[in-house]
Write a structure and sequence with these properties.
The complex is a heterodimer of chains A (178) and B (761). With 178 residues, chain A is mostly helical. Chain A contains 8 helices and no strands. In chain A, helix 1 packs antiparallel against helix 2, helix 1 crosses helix 3 and helix 6 packs antiparallel against helix 7. By secondary structure, chain B is an alpha/beta fold. Chain B contains 18 helices and 33 strands. In chain B, strand 6 and strand 7 form a beta hairpin. The longest helix of chain B is centred in the first third of the chain and has 26 residues. Chain B starts with a helix and ends in an 8-residue tail after the last strand. The chains are: A mainly alpha (178), B alpha/beta (761).
Chain lengths: 178, 761
């Protein structure tokens, strides 16, 4: 492989590193199950690796990657016709995909803010919400690990997310104000 | 619509239900309605999902940080921002030489200012060996080093560091006594006198009793030797350990320890999922093989991949990219298939075509493209809404009354496969369970009812509508049947079919989208139940992101031979011509990994005519000539089904660059399959997998071991590529079993000889 190809790879890794959170946020909007969304992210990154030669560096990487992601979401929806990737219908998906905010410009800032907000949770709540998002972890396992009933786990997760959403929103607003 | 506090609260709960997977169908509808009707609801939803996305990333990182990253060598901090599984993939892809990811990882290191030199320790001749040396290079056979700077001579001492070979064999004797034979392409990092790390490649280790405790680590696991001989194969899919003698202790990253004994093996995939296999001694070079190959090498002055066949060896230049078709019959192709989705109702129905168009379409598919196997759907939820109801009218309208099946049979279709989709609600438990991947599982009664329903449908179709099935699947891509339920459903189904007198109807399972651990575990569960296993005529999966692999073939299809069907795959790349290449890549890969019947999904019974996934598209309403759309991929399919007809017995195709040339999923630029057809001719298919735009020309040597004694064999050739649809090209001549071909990006080349006697002179 020549240098230009090496440079190309370097560029790809740089762009992926910088933007994968935005790409993931986009996929997750379309696929509400976080683990399915994560799987689709993996697949999307692989396709990006394979097709990177076709990417024109003068153009918007995230827009290009989002097209690939959109395709992967569609193909997952075709394949898994009865699973959790089907919570939304095509019409809603189109509406969401057209929304301006879907790509999450502030993805990296949001993640930093969230790290901070997580510290403000009770340790038990923090462990629980992170356990829910660990690879392959369902609500059932999360409930068991945190010693809650399934119903209580659903309620707690909802409550914790509400807290975190408010906290992150406030922090981001403060940062913008500064 | 603006949302009040109450609506926001309600929306918040629904969104959480969507994230955590507990929405009922009614609640799903409520959420959709919110999102359809209100931009504010969509904004709230998007914010929640962005939060959830950030949580998923943080959890992944937290999980990855305690030494759990993909590469055991230090990756730069910036690289940690990539999802570890992506890194793991990037890392593991590096097992193929020339593969993309070696480059990626090296680039990462350069990018953060770590010199490449950390990867390559200097070669120190024996006389200068410092006490730091941990091993000696004791023998080599035709070894090609990864780069000239890597070259070492026999007898040289090796300091801790990397040993990278492109091809050939290198024997390394560790100072503590273990002898390791590495087969290129491989990358082995010597860590100490009794430890090494293997990132890619195949090795065998023989460890005398004093050297007990010698260990080799891979990206997935650590093998600790307890006085034995074992083989290790590290690929992009994971690590395989095969124990030939004694026993080893095996530990995974997760910390689980287990002992493997003689004859046992274990595969751990990149997700860390282990599965047991039977050890296969023949795949690894041990000391005996090394001596034999060395002797051949000396006698011949050339490279031997085959015993004593000088013409073949002389013709073959293993320094160049080569695909060897190894001696020995593997599976037999039983048929070529396509799937046809359910009828979409009046006006979207095969029946609404004119008779001429029906015949034209049938000829195109079943006669010209040799599709002899047709997969048709039965939507069980509509057929049986309550216990004891069997209403096949939708199936009959779509497939039977429309003439779809009749036209197919008249044009050459011989085998019908039933694809049962969905499971009637009344057979399912009320609550989701983890065993059913968060969905509602079949109840015990439901499992019985389910088998009875499929048998009932097949009976009804045969008796009342004269439709005979060759085989039936079970619950397409379904989580609701749990691992322990699978053997039971199969036993019940066999019993019920027999009771209806449908003994000739075969059974296949598990039709999961990928050849992954999910599918493996379920087939393994069936295998562990002798009665169920005896009733399973073919294993089946789909070939989407993860194609057929050697694991499935060896574990389930080898002894006794069993059919392996790919009952769905779909290619819908960005450009039509890329789809053709993609289809050929999937198909050829799968045939090279034990598949006996390959079914494309689908031939458009209910899709829009321009759906890029269709093998052939047709518009039920169009009155002009454009009613029929034949994309390039149809020609790729037809070229392959013509070159490798049913009855072809495959050989194993193996590349000296990318081993099994797995596609999709490895960094291979080409893949191939080949074998002997029923009439005794030789057939080979090779495809260049690089894209039309920005791809590269591939020149590769083809070497068929079994043709070594044939001084000259002429093969007719055909190709498809950008704008070329299955057109003849110049003959290709094999001399002593060897030839060289060049393929443009996206090009599929098929070769077919005239029949040759079984024992060629």
């Amino acid at each position: 492989m020549g240098n230009s190809e090496g440079d190309n790879r370097k560029l790809m890794v740089g762009l992926l590193t910088q933007h994968q959170q935005r790409i993931f946020a986009y996929i997750h909007v379309l696929v509400p199950d976080p683990h399915s969304a994560w799987d689709i992210l993996q697949q999307t990154c692989l396709v990006i690796c394979e097709k990177f030669d076709e990417f024109d560096p003068q153009t918007d990487f995230v827009a290009w990657a989002r097209q690939i992601a959109w395709w992967e979401v569609r193909s997952a929806r075709q394949k898994f016709t009865r699973s959790r990737v089907q919570v939304l219908d095509d019409e809603v998906l189109q509406l969401l995909a057209q929304s301006d905010e879907v790509g999450d410009q502030a993805a990296n800032a949001r993640r930093d803010a969230l790290s901070n907000c997580l510290q403000r949770l009770q340790p038990r709540d923090r462990e629980m919400i992170l356990a829910r998002y660990e690879a392959g972890s369902g609500v059932q396992q999360t409930a068991q690990r945190s010693g809650r009933s399934l119903a209580a786990a659903y309620k707690s997760l909802s409550r914790i997310r509400r807290f975190l959403l408010d906290c992150v929103t406030n922090r981001l607003a403060e940062e913008n104000a500064e | 619509m603006t949302l009040g506090d109450k609506e926001i609260l309600e929306l918040h709960e629904l969104i959480n239900g969507a994230i955590d997977g507990w929405l009922s169908p009614t609640e799903c509808d409520q959420l959709r309605q919110f999102l359809r009707d209100s931009a504010e609801a969509r904004r709230y939803y998007v914010r929640m999902m962005h939060l959830s996305a950030a949580l998923r990333s943080i959890a992944e990182q937290a999980n990855a940080e305690p030494g759990n990253t993909a590469s055991p060598s230090a990756l730069p901090p910036s690289a940690k921002a990539l999802p570890p599984s992506v890194l793991r993939h990037l890392w593991s892809s590096s097992s193929s030489i020339g593969g993309l990811v070696v480059i990626v990882v090296v680039v990462l290191l350069v990018a953060v200012g770590i010199g490449v030199s950390v990867w390559h320790d200097p070669v120190v001749p024996l006389k200068e060996a410092s006490s730091a040396a941990v091993a000696v290079l004791s023998q080599t056979v035709d070894v090609q080093w990864a780069s000239p700077a890597e070259a070492r001579s026999v007898g040289s001492a090796i300091l801790p560091g990397w040993l990278k070979i492109r091809s050939g064999l290198a024997q390394v004797t560790f100072h503590d006594g273990a002898t390791v034979i590495v087969e290129g392409p491989a990358e082995l990092q010597l860590i100490s006198a009794d430890a090494a790390f293997c990132s890619a490649g195949r090795l065998s280790a023989e460890v005398p009793p004093p050297a007990r405790g010698f260990q080799v680590t891979t990206p997935q696991l650590t093998v600790k030797d307890l006085g034995t001989a074992f083989g290790l194969d590290v690929t992009a899919q994971g690590s395989e350990v095969d124990v030939f003698k004694g026993q080893v202790e095996l530990s995974q990253k997760a910390g689980d320890r287990q002992t493997l004994r003689e004859g046992e093996g274990l595969v751990v995939d990149t997700a860390g999922k282990p599965r047991r296999i039977v050890a296969d001694r023949s795949r690894f070079a041990l000391a005996d093989d090394l001596h034999r190959r060395k002797a051949e090498h000396a006698a011949d002055g050339n490279v031997g991949v085959q015993d004593g066949n000088r013409g073949f060896d002389k013709a073959l230049d293993l320094k160049r990219p080569t695909i060897v078709f190894r001696k020995g019959a593997r599976q037999t192709i039983s048929g070529w298939g396509a799937g046809a989705g359910e009828d979409n109702g009046p006006g979207q129905n095969f029946g609404s075509l004119s008779e001429a168009r029906k015949a034209c379409l049938a000829a195109l598919l079943y006669t010209e493209a040799h599709i002899d196997t047709l997969r048709v759907w039965a939507s069980l939820e509509s057929i049986s809404r309550k216990p004891d109801e069997v209403d096949v009218s939708r199936f009959v309208n779509g497939y039977v009354k429309s003439g779809f099946i009749k036209y197919a049979r008249d044009a050459g279709m011989k085998r019908l496969l039933l694809a049962p989709g969905g499971i009637p609600q009344y057979m399912l438990a009320k609550d989701p369970s983890p065993a059913a991947a968060g969905q509602c599982p079949l109840t015990d009664d439901g499992a019985k009812q389910y088998a009875a329903l499929i048998a009932g449908i097949l009976h009804e179709l045969k008796v009342k509508h004269n439709v005979d099935f060759h085989m039936t699947g079970i619950a397409n891509e379904c989580c609701a049947i749990t691992i322990p339920q699978w053997p039971r459903v199969i036993r019940e189904l066999r019993k019920d079919l027999d009771a209806y007198g449908l003994r000739s109807v075969k059974i296949t399972a598990v039709e999961w989208p990928n050849n992954d651990g999910w599918a493996f575990d379920r087939i393994r569960s069936i295998q562990s139940d002798p009665a169920a296993w005896a009733s399973l005529d073919a294993i089946s999966t789909h070939s989407y992101a993860m194609p057929a692999t050697e694991d499935f073939y060896r574990q389930f299809c080898l002894k006794p031979p069993r059919e392996f069907w790919i009952t769905e795959t779909e290619c819908s790349g960005p450009k039509p011509v890329d789809c053709g290449k993609d289809l050929a890549g999937h198909l050829i890969n799968d045939l090279n990994h034990g598949v006996t019947c390959w079914i494309y999904h689908e031939i458009a019974l209910n899709c829009s005519p321009d759906n890029p996934a269709n093998l052939v598209g047709y518009d039920f309403k169009a009155s002009n000539a454009s009613w029929l759309i034949v994309p390039p991929k149809y020609h790729y399919y037809k070229q392959l089904s013509s070159a490798l007809p049913a009855g072809t017995v495959l050989r194993q195709a193996w590349s000296n660059e990318t081993q099994d040339m797995r596609y999709p999923g490895s960094a291979t630029k080409y893949t191939a399959c080949g074998g002997r057809t029923a009439d005794g001719s030789w057939a080979v298919a090779v495809v260049n997998l690089t894209p039309v735009n920005g791809g590269t020309t591939v020149t590769v040597q083809l070497a068929a071991e079994e043709l070594a004694a044939v001084a000259q064999l002429v093969m007719k050739a055909a190709h498809s590529s950008n704008g070329k649809n299955n057109e003849p090209v110049a003959d290709v001549v094999f001399r002593h079993g060897v030839t060289t071909v060049t393929l443009e990006p996206d090009e599929l080349l098929t070769l077919r000889s005239s029949p040759i006697p079984p024992t060629a002179p």
